[in-house]
# Entry
Amino acid sequence: MMNLEKIKHPELKNHINMIYMHGENQNQTAINKVETEIKDYIYNKEFIISTKEEKPLKIPYANDGEYLVPIYTDEKEYITAMDYFSLNKIENKEYIIEKLNYFKKIKEDPNFLGYIVNIARVSYIINPTLL
# Structure
């Protein structure tokens, strides 16, 4: 198993920044291209994934049972998120380092909206169609 310090995903951070930039320019074609690059990038990479009792941590989104699962691109983002969780009274310090397909059945859950990358900063949701 990898340790926290070895997880680094500057490429994903760059892709996310590009999506925001293309969004500001309303360039859907470029956004679609970057989303394809994200899909290719995340396929075989391991991420820091928040868990609770060995299950993915569910962050409620809206009021109808829908949720996101936090993941992090690196140790610094994980530590920042733990501060964010403390401020928002979310108790969590558990994580695993795995590929995003580790929780195999999660994609089948209609309430699963995706993985939220770096929840405490400008974040991005990797929706299930990219998994």
